[in-house]
Records
---
Amino acid sequence: PNTCKDLPSLGEDCQASNFECAKPYYCSTAMFPYVCAQPAELDMPCSTAIICDTGLYCDTGTTMPTCKSQLPDGSTCTQSRMCLSNFCNFTGVTGTCASSPVSVQCIGRM
C-alpha cells in the first residue's frame, strides 16, 4: 500500500519523490544522485541547474549569470521572470513589468 511521507530536505535524495523537496529547497540536477539544495541568494551564481531564491531571478545577460532582485511594476523587462508580478508586458523588443492579467475559467454548472 502507498503511504504518505515527508518530502526530502536539504542534502537528501529527491529522485524517489518525483524530484520534489520540502520548501524552501529544490531538487538540484547539478549533482548526481539528485539532492535537495538551498536556492541561490542575491548576487550568487545561478543556472538552469541552480535556481534563485524567492523574489530573485537568474540574470543571464551577464558573462557570469547571477541572482538579482525581481523588479517592481513599471520597470523595464525582457522576460517575465524578471518581474515580481511574473508578467512582462511586451511592446516590441522590451517590455514593462505589470500586474498579470486575470484569467478566469469556469468549469461545471452555473
---
Amino acid sequence: RDVTGVQTCALPISRGTGGMIAFDLRGGADAVATFLRGLETIAIVHSLGEVVTTISYPALSSHRMLPDQERRALGVGDDTVRISVGIEDAGDITRDLARALAGLRAALRA
C-alpha cells in the first residue's frame, strides 16, 4: 500500500514530480506585496494549475476563509506564496523570480 501517495502520483508523470512549490518570505504580508509587484512575467492568480507559470497568495485567496490559527496550522502564513511552474523557458521564470526577490531585498533594506 502506498501510504505517501508518491508512487501513485508518479505513475502518470514521466519526468518527475509536478511543478508546485510554496515558500515563505521574511517580512510577512508587506514583503509578499512587494515581491508580487516585482514580477513581470508570472501571473498572479487565485487558483493554480495553468499551463503558464502562475503565483498565488493563499492568505488572500484559497485559504482566506480560514481563521488565522487554522491557516497557520496548515502551514499557510501571511508570508506564504505558492507557485505553479508552467511550460515557459526555465530561464524566463528564474529571471522573473530573481528580479522580484532583488526588489524585495532592496525594499527591506530601505
